[in-house]
């Protein structure tokens, strides 16, 4: 049960407007800076991220079809504003993992309740 389009629309209109002010510095959050595939416009999308030994992992709670995910995959990378620093990431890789091994244990359990099994791996440049 990946989150519905209705929830996505609500988050885009309401929740993201609040998160955009804290995502660049709050623990567990980042602002992904990406360019539109067709428009070339720059977009900033608040996301939950978790550090890995060589970069970051993002649980795709709306699935791999979200526009920001498609933009990052098409470009092969993006920038993350993470803890007030802009970090370039590359090698965007979509991973399906039913065991959710890239996530911390308590997060795995929560994502299991939502049936989230898709993740985006990003490596630091």
TrEMBL record:
This is Nitroreductase. It comes from Amycolatopsis rifamycinica. One of its GO terms (molecular function) is oxidoreductase activity. It comes from the Bacteria.
